[in-house]
Amino acid sequence: MFINQLQQLSETREGFYYAFDVDADQCLCRVFWADAEARRNYSLYGEAVTFDPTYSTNRYNMIFSPFTGVDHHKKSVTFGASLMSRENDLNFNWIFEKFLDAMGGKEPHCFFTDQCPAMKIAVPAVFKTAAHRLCMWHIMQKVPEKVGPTVAKETDFVSRLNSVVWDCDLEPSDFEERWFGLISEFQMEDNGWLSYMFSIRQRWIPAYYRDIPLGCLLRTTQRSESENSFFKRFENPRGTLVEFWLRFQSAMDQQRYRQKSLDRDSDHSLPQTKTLLRLEIHASTVYTHSLFYDFQQQCVDSLHSCSAGDSSRDATTRFLDVEDSMFRKTYTVALNPTTWDASCSCKLFERKGYICKHIIWILSGKGVKKIPDKYLLSRWTKNTKKMPLYDVNGQLMDDFTASDVSKMHISTAWSEFYSTLTLLKAQPAPKVTELIHLLTTFRQQLQPVSETMTKQQELEMLLGCRSSTELHILPPVESKNKGSGKRLTSKKQQCIAKVQKPKRFCNNCKQMAHHDKRNCPHSSSDHASSHQSADNASEISSPSDVL
Prior knowledge:
The chain is of the alpha+beta class. The protein is 46% helix and 13% strand. The chain has 22 helices and 13 strands. It has helices at residues 2-12, 36-45, 89-102, 117-126, 136-141, 143-147, 149-154, 157-165, 172-185, 192-199, 222-232, 241-268, 278-286, 289-305, 348-352, 357-365, 402-424, 429-446, 455-463, 491-500, 523-540, 543-546; strands at residues 17-22, 28-34, 48-51, 63-70, 76-84, 110-113, 131-134, 306-313, 318-324, 329-336, 341-344, 504-505, 512-513. The strands form three sheets. It has a seven-stranded mixed sheet with strand order 1-2-5-4-3-6-7, with helices on both faces. α13 runs antiparallel to α14. The radius of gyration is 32 Å and the shape is globular. Residues 526-547 have low confidence and may be disordered.
């Protein structure tokens, strides 16, 4: 039924893409899908993609792996999703190929994953131009363990390393200088893990992808993990794939409803400005609210922290130094006075897609009233979702199908029903009885003739499709993946967890400890002695003894 539903959607909805594969026993082993809306979102916001598998979403332990990006409201958006039986390079390779096929072969600028060995093989094998980036957060979480408890807890090495690693404003040479200085100061030259992470620094340090368009839009897989947590609110770990699909659709409906609500807010209201800069006023009319507030902060900072430095020029370009008191650095802005083309050494526009305070300060001083079109990326504007939708072959797609028309009519019917009930409050009881009679009669006309339906028929009615006699696919074999069972912990981890657990007061031994009255180690002996005392007391106070 799950594959039948995907097949029917591909036949009735233009732009819906799906692909599946079976193993030697004809059991489903991997599947990928993306509807027209997801593919359009990728064409608009697909510069940076994060991919992080999650577990416990269905009874077969198939691994659910969505492709996630950032939309024009800086919210997470799903570009496609997949299920696979095993987390290996063959499955990843197949899923990545289907993802690219669905997106017309267009690769993202950056593709973010964790340090999974299988993905380390599959990503460069499929994505030829995309930069494969590793999740910085996962790497930095390992630092205290790799450098040892003495360095991690008794020095400021970890905090200072974080300040070096997460700084997007550093050039590669500046990063390397500060890295080596820190390693030398704490005598960590012989630490093999730090040496290895430095050898692959181009894959996770922001300083090395400052020149990649929107390269700093994502730095971790936290968005994927956040989306996985979001999807898990809808999923049932013991549900079938049919149930998984229904819950996935509910999650996507909520995600897209949230996006449309933010679109409506941005279209019908203007955020309040904080300065008199014409560039800020113009930004409030073109940017979505979420992006505008970031741009607004740049405008405010330009007035409080920027001042003029030295300047020079060549035949076509002026080079203006801007003193930044906030970061205590000097940045150079290259400006063409004829075309108003500008670039800054901080590279904020290249990294995040909007101009920095240094360029704002220069342009405002030159009397520029609008953000130049070259620096107004459509992915951050209010009108980006109003673009027409095309498939991979360049054909205009219409995702507004008969199913959508039916949903719209049902919504209208609900509206009419509630309006009628509101009017009936002021009417006599016979009017309510008449409405009940009309609804009952109409329901009986729609009700099927057969008294009972089989489970198969109920599923077909729920999904709106019939089982195909042409597809002979067996359910997936239940997988044993790393996230499908209870995680085993070592004795060391158990001891660490016990030490970190807060103590509580035990009413039995009257001490602060890691137990309570129910599992107190002293309770057995105390309990036995108390029983002995009670028995002695009963023997003395027995009526027969008195007599």
